[in-house]
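Ticket reopened. Same input as before:
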Amino acid sequence: MFFSEQQIESLSPNPAAFNAGKSLSAGKKWETLCQNERAIWGEFQGSGKDPYRVQIDTNSLVYKCNCPSRQFPCKHTIGLMLLYAKTPDEFRRTKDEPDWVKTWFEKRLAKANKPEAEVERTPEEQEKLEKAREKTQTDRFENVQAGVAELDLWLKDLIRIGIMELPNKPLSEFEKVAARMVDAKAPGLAGWVKSLSRLNFEDQTEWQSEALGIISKLFLLIRTFQNFDNLSPLWQTSIKNLVGWNQSSKELLANPEAETVKDKWLVAGQIVETVDDITTQRNWLIGTNTNRKALILNFATKFSAIENPLLPGSIINAELAYFPSVQPYRAAIKMQRGIENTLEKLPESFSNWNEVYTFKAGQLQVNPWMSDICVAINEVRMTKQDNRWIICDDHQNFIPVVLKFDLEKVLKWLVVSGNRPQHAVCIVQNGKVMPLGVFQDNQYILL
Amino acid sequence: MWQKLIETALLGTEKKPLNPEVLPGEIREVYSQSHAASEQSFLEVAALYHFYLESGQSPASYKGETDNRVIEETLPIAPSSINDIFNSLDKVNARFKEKLCNLWLDLLIKKQYLVSPEIMIPLLSAGNGFSEVTKSKILKVIGNKGNWILSLHSAFQYNQILQDDVVWAEGNANERKVILTRLLKNNPDAAISMLQSTWGQEPLVNKRVFLDLIKECKTNAVIDFAQNLYEKEFAHSSREKKTEKECRRILAEILLGNAGTQLYQHTLKSLLSYVNVEKKKSLLSFVSSKNQSEYLLPENEEPEFWNAGIMEQKYGLEVKNYDISLYNNMNQYWLSFFIESIPAEAWFSNSFNSYADFLNCFLNNEKFTIKSAGKEQPVFLPAIFQNVREFGNSELAGSMLARVMTTEALPLLKYLKPEDFEQFIRKNKYYSDAEILQSGPYSLEESWSISFSEYILSNVCDYATQSNASNLNAIGQVIAQYVNTEAYQALQKYHDKVSGSNFFHQWNTNIYEPVDTVLRIRRLIKSSNN
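Engineering reply: fixed in the latest deploy. New output:
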């Protein structure tokens, strides 16, 4: 398994941690650098008496260090990864793992296999528990209904008075309404409200169309929720997800009915956002054999790191479980067998943007609220029109690149391509495109 | 239709109700069947229409010119072991990052490699803050693709190299100065050509500024240019302006600095006629070979050379006023100008017996002292310093060292020969003075000698393990910048020696880590070169 520096940087909690890790990757202070088919490990002599012990499971990218740092991964873990990326031959191959590595693997395996302890309850207790659960669910539903009704009124007021003044509305007004939705246990609706405040108000024509688009879709969602009882169970689940019911990965993975797909998944790209101290990591995956797409969301806070990090640009041999939906897209890793960096085959791709839009129309028929689509497309070029970067296909149709897209990534595309048409992976969102990476010589190059 | 909906949404259904006539068939039907209030009906219509709009979207057509040319490379990409060296530079202090980057770029250029695409953009970004010399090396290793990127986007400030003519023609005074300074350093002939192209139209004030700039450059192109101006445009005239005289002085300075010019030869002949080299008189003086030369500078004007007419007309010098705090008389002011402007070896090789003799003559003569801040100071000391700065004469600088205090010696150090500098440091035990260590005569590519590097490491190791050690960080940075690559083993030896000490941390953080990082990178570059 091979890490690139860019991939390791994507794992780091912040740039300072990455730089600190880099300074530790010189090699001098590392003792007992070893590797075998499932792990790499090393001991780092810090300023203390005993060296810090770092171990990394190379099949699932789980790591541990016994330093007191609260950052995950810590600088020692990052340093070990960087050192391995630079000079893997410095790591002695051995079958003998030290006890501290062996024990760690055993404990993790035991925890994974341990069935959840069943709490013994009397029939009365069980009935009471179920009634309590039902009440919680009913209360929640009623809360959301109230929130939806309030939002419905707010939208109607907005349309009655007019959205001309939207750019001049203070942020607090949107946040107040969003907070009401959160109070109503409908954080999904809060997200829609906040998106109205984040439009690009400098572009007069664009914000107006986008605002009405958001309002239209939100209203459709509200009306659909109000029609909840007439929906199929799968639609009910989908609408609840959109409104903000949590999807439990634990329950998903324990559900024998959940749809699972085994494949070698290309981690095509990753975007990390932090809002209100919660970090959301979006990972887009493409199944290289099944051509299925998946979105894996990871979360972290100040107090808890991302549990199952993914390396963008890597290929994971894994079984994914999809959350139930009318359009299964969001998934969780059920089992991971290994990480590679070489593609055996390239995923299927669209030939031009017209095909992508035709596909998108089909997806919208299934789910009118579908937003980001991950697509692989052939023979496209990055170029400029009216001082704006666009991606143009060989039919001379184009989609503009999202505003504020990192210029260095654009230039990296140009450098890698040398103006040759590329086979690329992109996210299409709201009529714009965000390139994630390009394929070259059976390698995937992350932008 | 969508635009109509937007118009209603902007003003509000209260002010601009939706006109159902604009709606397409099926949606109009839905609208007319709805008995809801107008805003609800509007929202229902908008929701439906938006869905159809989104589903029916198609991509826009590109109207621009298609550039189908493929950019190919003719040189190979460097192996990853060489590309990785660039990533290591991130750990290096900004002060000598450029130095190491240059070594790495030289390696790539020598091997005719290009950098990998992964590091091309970070390299261009890093190079934004580097000198023009380094930038021009970067341009050689980014290949056709890299140069194509530069043409597409102005994020990287490399394009100024290509626009000199334009800026020279249209830029402001500062911009033109910057261009001329840079060109004089990298391509003096082109600089003079550029200057000549507009010389006729330049105002006098600009000419004076430009002459000051070209003074630093001692190439033949500059000498020829200066000679021409000296003989023609700025030859003395009775009605000349003050600035014209100043220009003549600058031109005289330029010409006096070059042994091939007539002005130099005539002036030197005149000057040396006043040197009195004392003959050896006694047996002892033969044995000791110590001659005392004397400069018989007249105190007043005299017709052969030291007079206002010659000084003004030939050299553009002031003839009325001189700074009485610096000179005792006008002749001393004039002589100071000649000492500054003529290379010291011209005096030495034609009359004086040694630099020591030369310095004795001008620094030890009572007649050539002036009272300043209550003490007698040599009048010509500043001129000799300036001579060292102007001509970089390491022997003169070395001879000066013994005569000045340490604080005065600092500007001289960078003109010494490396072995003299190292001897100076050893003799005065300046191993813990970062400022002095920093002031040596080493260029971008040069390092201390191996023995000196080991000397510094040994003494700094002892120093760093004392409780009163100070400024260790600065010392570490200087060592990292100049230490010889072959001293790597010595560094490890001292590191092991300190490992059990209470002061390990301060040695490790301030000295060992920065030096070790840089040495590793340089050893990598060196081994890749072989």
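DSSP finds twelve helices and 16 strands in chain A. Chain A has four domains: 5-111, 135-243, 249-340, 353-446. Please confirm and we'll close it.
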